[in-house]
Structures are given as structure tokens and as C-alpha cells.
Amino acid sequence: MKFGDEIIGNGKGPKIQNTPAQESKVKRPLRRNFNEATTFCAHLSHYEYRPSNSKIIIFDTETEDNHGTYNKYSGTFIAPEDGLYGFVYTIRMACTSSGASGSFELIRNDNVQSVIYVGETGCEHQETASGFVIVQSRKGDTFYVRTHSSFPMHGHVLSDSNGRTSFCGWLIR
């Protein structure tokens, strides 16, 4: 107990309460209210059999989208404000007769921001790869994940209860 503290309670032991003067001296970090933060996460609800080049992956099941910024019909996220955003995308693939391999791109306004490669040559397993990127963005920038524009695709994109193909993002600041 320090000088200036008030003792309050019901006689069963003191409770210490800071005085208003002490409260004003307490430094608290500035935080954005979590309910105001922009976040989205969506996954694919089905398999994509032998997707073609430059095909947008439409993650059609939203698990989080607190500002309605992700469109589950077009597979696109539109930045609601200027800021620094983080994105993560995970792709799971299985084999066809020629193996399972493919490259996937995270796109911002038709420009490649990140590329991942998924590859399995023996067709004995399924493969999963994830990409992560932090991007300075402007309000209205559009983000989506697609198959590579020129790398040949072999295999199927999988998403089920054994592993989800997904796309998530959030505003960092």
C-alpha cells in the first residue's frame, strides 16, 4: 500500500483502489478494438479437379469475415482501408496419373505478390504448401489466389475434413 491509496471493503480484508490522480498516470498501450479489426478466413468446400492455368481459387466457405470484405462468390478480398495486411494461403493437392504439382500465386490488383509450389512425384501421398506475405495496401486493392499463369498444373486441389485449402487475411495496422 502506498500513500494516497484508499482502503475500501467490508471489513473482511482491505481492498486497495488507486485514486483518480494515480489512474491518470497509468500508461496503457494503445490498442485497436478487436471488434474493429479487419479479418477474414475462407476455405474451399470441394475438390478442384485439374484446375487450368490462371484459375482463381474460389474459397467458398467463410469461417470469418467481420467486415464483409471477402467475396465467397468471386474469391476476392477488397481492402477496406489503407494499411499493412497479412495474408496466408494453404493449398492441398493429390495426384493424377502424371503426379501432383502446381504453383499458386497470391495476386494484388493483377500483380503477383507471392508464389508457392506444391509437388508430389511418386503419387504415394498428398502434399500441402502454405504461403505467407505482408503487404502495404491501399483502400480498394483486390487480392485473390490463383493457379500459376504459365506453370503446368498436374493433379487436383483437395479440401475436406482431412485438410483445408484456405485463404485468410487481416489488417495489421
UniProtKB/TrEMBL annotation:
Region: Disordered, residue numbers: 1-26
Cell compartments where the protein resides: Secreted
Keyword S-adenosyl-L-methionine: no
Organism lineage string: Eukaryota, Metazoa, Spiralia, Lophotrochozoa, Mollusca
Keywords, sorted A to Z: Secreted
Assigned GO CC terms: extracellular matrix; extracellular region
Keyword Transcription among record annotations: no
Sequence ranges assigned to domain C1q in this UniProt record: 32-173
Protein name, UniProt field: C1q domain-containing protein
PROSITE patterns linked to this entry: C1Q
